[in-house]
Amino acid sequence: MLPAMQSPPMSGIRFHPLAAFLVAACIGGPASLAAAAEPPAAATPQADAQPTATPPGTAKPRGAAEPQRASQDPRGMNDAERKAYTQSLREARDLLERKQYDEAIARLDKLSAEQPREPQARFIKGVALTDEGRTEEAIAQFRALVADFPELPEPRNNLAVLYAKKGEYQLARDELERAVQTAPDYAVAHENLGDVYARLAQVEYERVVALDKRNRSAPAKLKLIREAETAGQ
């Protein structure tokens, strides 16, 4: 029996940093993880409006509109409560940037308990767990988030990145396909999806090469994919 082809984990697929996701509380500033391009308009759970996500402070922003919010938050927070929530998120982000993970996660858990209909604190916790190297916990965090907020594409993108880094490309593909269905203009997810498709193709071409030594087309295609991956790094 032919052994399963094992490809190295993907390095080019891009994580969606926390600052880009904060659609309700415009914190701004880059995360300590890989930068992402402009995010799509993220759906706000149980709200009438769908604000556009704030662009991260990275080298590749293309600009995005600031979300417009009424004086009364449709999810139940008044202006004072919203400002307090925003400030707490900013403080948690600052703790994360200083790599004070335990303190940041404790603050984020408190925010999530106080405002369970707000996804931002849960998203940042997923970023914190990822940054700390707690991959399985980060996967569980993002999976729970997309289960509760299926309309948000950014957590799906980050979940796909974690799957791809483990070599679970089918799972990564599924999450990215759902992300671009939800937000067709989400460029980061589209690029990541292309990278995952390329890796899936690479695995299959490697299998063809192992099965059929006389095949001439598969090695040529495999070479092109490897060259494209090298050029994108």
How would you portray this structure in words?
The chain has 233 residues and is mostly helical. The protein has one domain: Tetratricopeptide repeat domain (Serine Threonine Protein Phosphatase 5, Tetratricopeptide repeat). The protein contains 9 helices and no strands.
Describe what is shown at a glance.
This protein has one domain: Serine Threonine Protein Phosphatase 5, Tetratricopeptide repeat. Helix content is 56%, strand content 0%.
Strands, helices and their partners?
Layout (H helix, E strand, L loop, with lengths): L17 H4 L57 H19 L3 H14 L5 H12 L3 H14 L4 H13 L3 H14 L4 H25 L5 H15 L2
Q: Give the SSE order as H and E letters.
A: HHHHHHHHH
Rg from Cα = 19 Å
Number of domains: 1
Report the biggest beta sheet as strand number plus sense, adding barrel if it closes.
none
Poorly predicted tracts of residues? 1-8, 18-74
CATH superfamily: Tetratricopeptide repeat domain
CATH topology: Serine Threonine Protein Phosphatase 5, Tetratricopeptide repeat
- Separation, N- and C-terminal Cα atoms: 34 Å
Mean pLDDT: 75
> Quaternary arrangement of the chains shown?
single chain
- Beta content comes to under 5%
